[in-house]
């Protein structure tokens, strides 16, 4: 029963000591905890050794132990200096200038107090032997021992707490950096190709952005980029980019909006996304641009693509004017083409045809019944081809010097014969003087033009003269060249009259 009571008392003392150490941790200095070597009485060693090993130290009354400890401390105070004083160096043996003196701080004008410390009065500390340390441990009161243990534990806890606090602070700092980046707008660049676009004078390209940022918030907004793809700022996250509408160039150009979309992930500032998101805006024919396209482009220009609403209005007017001018030009071209077609269209009682576009403006025609002659404009004596309708079964003989260049059956009982000079052969022969009875003589410019008209300018005059005709005067190659060309551009247009 006594052992149990003593154990409980020790536990209570341990708890009190820990609490006292923890509460006074900020107030305790090293000077408050002193270890007195003189508290160990060597004469008591036999008595300690004489105690049986199995004796419970709790049987010794704490009061007696403390009293014994106090008597020992009193005796130690009355004892003379240690025998080891021979090894002690007294500072009073040193020269006067080597004495340790200090002036008490804060005395102002008070006389300086010389506090010379005679180190000879204080023995130098010595390292206790293992036996002495064991004796000290056994003679120390439980309360004091527990206080020391609690102090050591408290210091360890403080040191460990400081390390944990530093690590925790670092983690919090890193988390703060990550959190700050997650809430920082990041600039990114995409790829855009729009020929002739200068956003400093025209409007910027509206980019539709949708997705989710790092906070988990949904994003759906329109941002604007210049011709280099710069201008987008977003929080980190996953997004889809697409072109919302056409920009408007300074000259009013409207672009075809691509339908492609790009999936991107924004991670850091200055990120280059051109490899994942590049859009090509093509320039369509201005006459095909619609009012809806112009209105959509103007809307986005006013909302952020242009410097102001007034600037957006000017760009809209430029786009409309450009489109209208193109439409008018196309209309004029169509009207002229219609007039030209009427002018190129020729008809007789039995057949009709269209003068080849390549010949239009360079030739003229005369007509006599079902005979139609196409000749060099301004020279009726220089026919290119003469068309004659002959009843099926009848014989056709071309004029002197002409060759049959092709035939077309009308399907109504008549056949149209196309005949004329083989100019790729006649011209070189005439110029070189090889023809005995030339149709006529031709100036060089006329000769070249005739060759071009009858061959489609597929060969130069020199090639025809030197290669196709040849030096033997045969006209086979030249004739084939002309007949093949007429079969392509003229004969297919010959139809029976309705």
Q: How do the strands and helices of this protein lay out in sequence?
A:
Elements: H1 2-23, H2 45-50, H3 62-78, H4 130-139, H5 142-182, E1 186-189, E2 191-194, E3 205-213, E4 218-225, E5 230-234, E6 237-243, E7 262-266, E8 271-272, E9 278-281, H6 291-305, H7 309-344, E10 345-347, E11 351-354, E12 363-368, E13 371-376, E14 383-391, E15 403-409, E16 414-420, H8 423-432, H9 444-455, H10 461-468, H11 476-489, E17 495-496
Parallel strand pairs: 1-8, 2-9
Antiparallel strand pairs: 1-5, 3-4, 3-6, 6-7, 10-11, 11-17, 12-13, 13-14, 14-16, 15-16
Order of helices and strands: HHHHHEEEEEEEEEHHEEEEEEEHHHHE
User: Stretches where pLDDT falls below 50 for ≥5 residues?
Assistant: 28-120
Question: What would the average pLDDT be, to the nearest integer?
Answer: 76
Terminal-residue CA separation: 141 Å
Shape: rod-shaped
Strand content: 15-25%
For the biggest sheet, the summary is: 5 strands, antiparallel
Q: Work out the radius of gyration.
A: 59 Å
Task: Please state the structural category.
Answer: alpha+beta
Query: Within the largest sheet, what's the order of strands?
Result: 12-13-14-16-15
Beta strand count: 17
The level of helicity is 25-40%
Number of helices: 11
What are the key terms here?
5-stranded antiparallel sheet, 18% strand, alpha+beta, 17 strands, 4-stranded antiparallel sheet
